[in-house]
């Protein structure tokens, strides 16, 4: 079978015909394979959801225990319909995985989901997997996106807290993955004081601790005590919640903070370029490392990566999937 006969885009998202399932479907389907717990990839309402144990547990936390009719933990290679499927770490957030689809006859197709190659203390690192067709995201698929060392960005935050000891530092960080990564980076940088967190972050921070990820002392943002570092979802910055803090330094942890206009639009005083997605050098290095026969691009800056593949002599095509909103960034 040709790759296009095995996996192809539909209105519901990527569909594997011989397996009878969708990967990260955009609407409810009978059987969904889910790469990770961000809500633009992990939607409720499916018949069966197959994912890593951590992703299934995160979906239950976020959507309730009845998020699907049934669930199946991805452990080792699995036979689904006429294909063998396996899940491999993606380095994006806790529980995130790439999905390898291996038909009995035909090319091996690796669907990356969202992925990152930078070291991340709160999830397993990306695992390179041999494949014939690599289906990659391209959230930061333009040469301008070259993310700095996350520890260097954290050093900027620590330095700002030292320079302005009387000003609370409010960091906008998405509830799943980014908040916990910022906390872990702060600990790695030597910040051992309590960190205050918005109530919307508590359950997922608790879950990371339950999974053995050390986050240090955390306190509620409603009772921060002497905590100078406070984390909240970015939406809180547009609500009355932020007014409880006197003269705060507003910071935001996101790959998009490399675009200074976005920081200005959000009135961010301290933009922190900390991303859980691959930047341009990581995207292109990953394609070179895997050396697939074809590259398919699911979402993001498709045209930039498509042009790079053309220059490199790598057959590539965009899938033009819509509905992935880069929730975590």
From TrEMBL:
Single GO MF annotation: RNA endonuclease activity
Alphabetical UniProt keywords: Exonuclease, Hydrolase, Ligase, Nuclease
EC number(s) stated in the UniProt entry for this protein: 3.1.-.-
Top-level taxon of the source organism: Bacteria
Keyword Cytoplasm: no
PANTHER family: BLL1145 PROTEIN (PTHR11203:SF49), CLEAVAGE AND POLYADENYLATION SPECIFICITY FACTOR FAMILY MEMBER (PTHR11203)
Protein name, per record: Ligase-associated DNA damage response exonuclease
Organism of this sequence: Paracoccus siganidrum
């Amino acid at each position: 079978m040709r790759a296009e006969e095995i996996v192809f885009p539909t209105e519901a998202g990527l569909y594997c015909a011989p397996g009878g399932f969708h990967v990260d479907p955009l609407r409810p389907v009978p059987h969904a394979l889910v790469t990770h717990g961000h809500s633009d990839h992990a939607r409720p309402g499916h018949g069966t959801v197959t994912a890593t144990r951590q992703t299934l547990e995160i979906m239950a936390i976020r959507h309730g225990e009845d998020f699907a009719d049934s669930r199946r933990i991805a452990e080792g290679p699995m036979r689904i319909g006429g294909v063998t499927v396996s899940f491999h770490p993606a380095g994006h957030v806790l529980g995130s995985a790439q999905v390898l689809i291996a038909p009995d006859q035909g090319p091996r197709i690796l669907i990356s989901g969202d992925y990152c190659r930078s070291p991340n203390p709160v999830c397993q690192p990306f695992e390179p997997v041999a494949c014939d067709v690599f289906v990659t995201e391209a959230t930061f698929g333009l040469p301008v996106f070259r993310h700095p060392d996350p520890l260097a960005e954290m050093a900027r935050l620590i330095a700002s807290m030292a320079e302005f000891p009387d000003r609370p530092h409010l960091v906008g960080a998405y509830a799943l993955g980014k908040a916990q990564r910022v906390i872990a980076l702060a600990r790695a940088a030597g910040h051992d004081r309590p960190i205050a967190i918005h109530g919307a972050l508590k359950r997922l921070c608790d879950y990371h601790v339950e999974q053995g990820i050390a986050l240090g002392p955390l306190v509620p943002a409603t009772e921060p005590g002497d905590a100078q570092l406070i984390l909240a979802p970015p939406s809180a910055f547009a609500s009355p919640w932020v007014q409880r803090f006197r003269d705060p330094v507003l910071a935001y942890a996101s790959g998009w903070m490399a675009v200074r206009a976005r920081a200005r639009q959000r009135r961010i005083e301290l933009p922190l370029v900390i991303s859980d997605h691959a930047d341009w050098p990581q995207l292109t290095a990953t394609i070179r490392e895997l050396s697939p026969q074809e590259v398919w691009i699911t979402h993001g800056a498709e045209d930039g990566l498509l042009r790079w593949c053309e220059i490199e002599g790598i057959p590539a095509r965009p899938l033009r999937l819509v509905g992935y909103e880069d929730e975590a960034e």
